[in-house]
Amino acid sequence: MPPGSSLTLARATLLLSDLRGVQSITLLKLTQKLLKKQLSVFGQRVVLDDGKMCFPPPGPSNIYLPYLYMLDQTTLQIGK
Fold it and tell me: pLDDT class for 20, splitting at 50, 70, 90?
């Protein structure tokens, strides 16, 4: 899937989750997995530990990637 498409899909999933009012944990976890996979394509390794994003050393190399924000938002939605 092209990088822009996965980001659009992640945004749509979060918006759908907000509109429905009921969280679909399965859908959010699939979105989380998609974003993690896309970040690995860009060379960013992300570990989710107890609902928090962790970056193995040396840390994130590009904090401006929109995927990091979307992954954080998805993780927050799962934690609600």
Answer: confident
pTM, rounded to two decimals: 0.76
| Alpha carbons 79 and 15: distance in angstroms, whole number | 16
What are the sequence ranges of the domains in the chain?
Answer: 3-79
Query: Measured between alpha carbons, how far is residue 32 from residues 39, 74, 75, 78 in Å?
Result: 11, 6, 7, 9
pLDDT digits (tens, 9 = 90+) for 63-76: 767 888 888 888 88
Q: Strand, helix or coil at 52?
A: strand
Radius of gyration of the chain (CA): 12
